[in-house]
Amino acid sequence: MDYDVLILGGGIIGCAAAYELSKYNLNIAVIEKDYDIADDISLVNTAIVFDGSETKDDLMSKLEHIGNSMLFDITKKFNVPFKRVGSLKIVQDEEGVKILEDMYNRAKKRGIENIYLIDDKAVYDIEPHLKINVKKALYSGNTAVICPYDLAIAYAEVAFDNGVIFRLEEIVQDIQKITKGFKVTTNKNKFTCRVVINTIPGDNYTIDLSRSTIKNDHNRIQYLLLDEKFKCRLSNVVMKVKGEDNLINQVPTLSGGTLIGINTNKSLGFKELLEEASNLIPEVTKDDVNSIFYDNYSKDLMFIDDSNSTKGYIKVTGKHYAEITIAPSLGKMLCETVVSNLSSTLKKNFIDKRRDFYRFRDMTKEQRNEAISLDKRYGKIICLCNKVSEGEIVDAIRRPLGARTVEGVKRRTGATFGNCHGAYCISKIIDILAREMDKKPTEIVGDSKNSKVLASRIKEFNDM
Ligand SMILES: Cc1cc2nc3c(=O)[nH]c(=O)nc-3n(C[C@H](O)[C@H](O)[C@H](O)COP(=O)(O)OP(=O)(O)OC[C@H]3O[C@@H](n4cnc5c(N)ncnc54)[C@H](O)[C@@H]3O)c2cc1C
User: Fold this and answer.
1) Entry's InterPro entries (predicted)?
2) Per residue in 231-271, pLDDT tens?
3) What is the pLDDT of residues 197-244, one digit of tens each?
């Protein structure tokens, strides 16, 4: 057999499973079609860590609740930005109160602590900047915010340092059962393995033909990212609830900004989005908005099919709004299933540590001077908005599973996420990538094979 375990898909779930399994004496590979791992994570540096109180599904609730508490330790260990900010689900009518009461009773029955049903006065005590009418709210002290791709990258880096092979730019085309395991066919290779963990959402292969498919029901969510200078920022995650859905969310981002998410099936223009946002935060004006974007939001359940696990095929299908939250618990659950089936033993030399790195913007003056004395590239700021130094960008490229694209550098360092959206630094990032990878600047790509950033050289600039 080529591998003991093949993990298909290098998203957050695949990377979490790879990390957990890398603790054991197993020969493991992750197959990912993109240039980089976790490339599908929504492009916002802040995701909500749910606590399992909002979902009606008991398994998802359990995975969220365990994931929430695991993330506290994991983020500390791997130096991933994480903050427990709390959340308020607010309602404005009696129908809403009934929904919150059901949610509260469900949470209590599930043993979720630190959840309170509160009246309007208590809401304004917790969130003095909230200016809209509130009838009742469900407060959770468990809700947190996290940098999602930093978590995925940390999982992958530690798995890589413990021997997991990452096969990037390789597309899974088929999975077949063979006598003592499986054959996985990609666009480049054919591999045999004892166990397959398939985290590719939606696709069906020869092995899946007799299985039912899960239908993904997408809602559109449109975002307004407000400037860090916006004064009426709410410090909790605040969700305005109508029926079973969150109509509008405001999330305090880890970099000090404010993200407003508007759930809608329509494509709204800027003016309409501002009007919707003002239903939660009346003070917001067009001058506060830094950027606008949209994504597809999945309400559906994940479908975790381990019915064939004794024969070695585990399939995780579907998309879910809380996949970042459940990644640690689901990764552990997948690992336990595999380990018990293969009777694997723990590695004696497992290194549960991410290689050190500097985050210049979070350092004191003394720490910065020390870093610069070791490598003067830490003294050269490339992204002025987010204070990202050349040293950090070089490290992001040279690390295990390092960045090879502009997008990879952005996600790993936070460069270009500031007010100028990369107008100042993007050409410098391209130059550094080209120098480090021994390529021409015109060969550097945004995030995939055909996404060149520079079309061609301009004749006049011969030494570009
Ligand atoms: C708008 C939005 C907001 C969200 N907010 C939150 C939040 O606040 N909190 C939270 O907990 N979660 C949130 N999520 C969920 C979360 O970000 C994503 O759902 C999650 O990153 C998906 O992880 P995954 O690993 O399961 O799937 P994916 O990231 O989809 O992983 C699957 C991987 O498989 C690869 N792949 C696909 N086909 C093939 C193939 N044929 N061969 C090889 N590889 C293949 C893909 O490239 C991908 O990397 C949000 C999602 C969205 C869209």
Assistant:
1) BFD-like_2Fe2S-bd_dom, BFD-like_2Fe2S-bd_dom_sf, FAD-dep_OxRdtase, FAD/NAD-bd_sf, G3P_Oxidase/Oxidoreductase
2) 888 999 999 987 767 789 999 999 888 999 998 878 889 99
3) 999 987 789 898 655 555 556 678 899 999 888 888 899 999 998 776
* CATH number of the domain encompassing residue 365: 1.10.10.1100
Please tell me the total number of residues recorded for the chain in this structure: 464
CB 302 within 8 A of CB 60: yes
Within a domain: 384: yes
Distance CA 408, CA 460 (A): 30
Report how far ligand 1's centroid is from the alpha carbon of 230 (Å): 30
Place of tokens 């109180």: 53
Where in the sequence is the domain holding 119, given as residue range(s)? 87-141+218-298
Atom index in ligand 1 nearest the CA of residue 31 equals 43
Measuring from each residue's beta carbon to the nearest atom of ligand 1, which residues come in under 6 Å?
A: 8-14, 31-34, 39-42, 47-48, 148, 171-172, 199-201, 203, 221, 295-297, 319, 321-325
Return the number of other C-beta atoms located less than 10 Å from residue 51's C-beta. Answer: 27
What is the tally of structural domains in the chain?
3
**Per-residue pLDDT tens over the stretch 56-67:** 899 999 999 999
